[in-house]
Design brief:
proteasome; 3 strands; Serine Threonine Protein Phosphatase 5, Tetratricopeptide repeat; mainly alpha; 16 helices; WH-like_DNA-bd_sf
Amino acid sequence: MLSEIKEGQGKVGEACDIMLEDQIETFGSLNKREKTEFILEQLRLCMAKGDYERAVIVSRKINVSYFKTPNTGDLKLRYYYLMIQYGIHEEQYLEVCKHYYNVFETDEIKLDNKWVVVVQHMVVYAILASYSNEQVDLLNRIKQLSSELEKLPIYSNLLKLFTTQKLISWDKFSTDFLHTLVQSDVFSEQTEGGKIRSTRLHNCVVEHNIRVIASYYSKITLTRLSQLIGLDIDQAEEKVCHLVVTKVIYARIDRPSKIVSFLQPKSVDQELNEWVSDVNSLLMLVEKTSHLIDKEGIVTSITRTL
């Protein structure tokens, strides 16, 4: 192919443009597999060129349900590894984790020891993802892979830390996990992306601790908060503000008194519902008391007649 010749000459941009000239999905003479292979090559060249916006458009031409048909495991792996590459570039860690999960469910991976690296990456990228209901659900789904996680005790313990409502000490975390994690390509100190993800991991620990504190405290001083999460007061305030802006927690900071309040004010509907509930409880108590008085009166009158 002309595109292969151009790529061999180092002209990746020209090779990509040549491949993109053909709208392969409109070719009726080709079968599904041939079309998918061609689109995957377009996707690969777009990423090699650095045109990630076009890569997204090309990736949407592939119907992932096709990978459920027999003998498409190689195409499935090519697709998801390319999408992992895109997700890492865009720092879409939740999507990266979901792609690794799909890779893990491929028979070719399960039958080989390659699943070890895949599960490790699933755990790490799930933790790096921004907090959301979907992220929590994904963490719990990965936690159910008990047979695989038993063979990876460090990653199993790492997963438990982020799925329990307990504070994580960064010093202890560094001692127990960081030495192992920096040896992987995800947190490699030799790459710029690895350094960025290492910083992100520290932020994830801090954000986890703030969420735990918000669930246990109604009010706390900034000084005590900064001690618990291992940051200075200004950094602690900045992290709280970030979580408030992203609607992960509710908090209000009284700067003059340096107090953070996590107590969310009740809405009018909540106040009304509580009032109605209190009134109903009061009426039930009155009714029960009246019944007991009547019962006692009847018992007394019967006793006197006897």
